[in-house]
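Exercise 7.
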Amino acid sequence: MSADQNKVIELLNEIIEMEVSGVVRYLHYALMIKGPNRIPIVKWFHEQANEGYQHASTIGEKLTSLGGHPSLKVAPVPETKTHKVLDILKESLEFEEKALEKYKEVLKHVGDNVALEEMIREMVRMETEHCEEVRKMLDAN
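Solution. The predicted structure, written as tokens, is:
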């Protein structure tokens, strides 16, 4: 196994840990939302949790196809005790930006693995769009 492949496996495991953490994070957020706009916001957070699960599954499948062993760890999810929608969205954006950077880091090590590169580029696209959406939500006045 090449050094780049080892690095890819290491990074993919970090991504799995982040994505599973996202599932926990977004489920918690959904449960903590209160107020008159609760229903659409809860729905959106549940969608984000489901997306995190799908991303973790996709990354895990690729990781095992590369000979890796998926991590059972979950990246820590800080409990800020802040459950106001705008505060939660700010936390979400910070989390998503870190995940986006991790996906971009994988691109530096894909070598000539076109399938891996295209999969990671698609994840970068989705994560970028998610960050853009959260920024728009935070921009509302």
